[in-house]
Amino acid sequence: MRTILAKVAKPASVAALAIAAFAMAPVAGAAPAAPEAGATITAADINPAAGTFTTVPEGDLAIQGAGDGTPAGAVQWFKNKAGSTAYQGLCEKAVENAYGTTGVWASANAHWNGASPKHTTGTPPKGSFVYWNISQWGHVGIADGSGGIYASSIGGKIGHASSVNYFNNYRGWTPAAVPHR
């Protein structure tokens, strides 16, 4: 009896896996899944006169996991992720992960509305959160301390821009801190 079950169970498992794989495979010619509503940054959101975006030189990369909760660790997290498209439409998740946390704020707008104190002038200190009023959810990045920012959606990926005005509709900044409510 045991031999019969072993011979029947294995083909049944393989068949079940094959059916599951077929069910999850994309249909040829089907439209790709729509991105999260309002999370896409378009060319209209970028101010080309505000400076340049750059890649991070290989020598500036350090082996580090999620941020260590410090402003320097948050900036380093973004440097380590430079070039990644994994956070497109997920800017709030990126800045939270840079500080070693996740799931605190639902969006960049919620973060801006809930964080304090808010500043609308001056150069944001290193690791500060910088915000823009673009898209339904807003946009957020991390200040480099020299007037520039690290963010998702810089040239279509995580990168660095030399000015907080890289994106249109700059809101301002809030101090560097591990995100919390």
Task: Tell me about this structure.
The protein has one domain: Alpha-Beta Complex (endopeptidase fold (from Nostoc punctiforme)), CATH 3.90.1720. It has 4 helices and 6 strands. The N terminus is likely disordered. Strand 3 and strand 4 form a beta hairpin. Strands 1-5-4-3-2-6 form a 6-stranded antiparallel sheet, covered by helices on one side. It is of the alpha+beta class. Helix 2 packs across helix 3.
Name the descriptors.
single chain, endopeptidase fold (from Nostoc punctiforme), 4 helices, 27% helix, globular, disordered N terminus
Outline the secondary-structure elements.
Elements: H1 2-24, E1 53-54, H2 71-81, H3 91-98, H4 108-114, E2 129-132, E3 139-143, E4 149-154, E5 157-161, E6 170-174
Antiparallel strand pairs: 1-5, 2-3, 2-6, 3-4, 4-5
Helix pairs in contact: 2-3
Summarize the model shown.
This protein has 181 residues and is α+β, with helices and mostly antiparallel strands. The chain contains 4 helices and 6 strands, in the order H-E-H-H-H-E-E-E-E-E. Strands 1-5-4-3-2-6 form a 6-stranded antiparallel beta sheet, covered by helices on one side.
Order of helix and strand elements from N to C terminus? HEHHHEEEEE
CATH topology: endopeptidase fold (from Nostoc punctiforme)
| Sheet with most strands | 6 strands, antiparallel
Please state the second-level CATH architecture. Alpha-Beta Complex
Tally of strands: 6
Whole-angstrom Rg: 21 Å
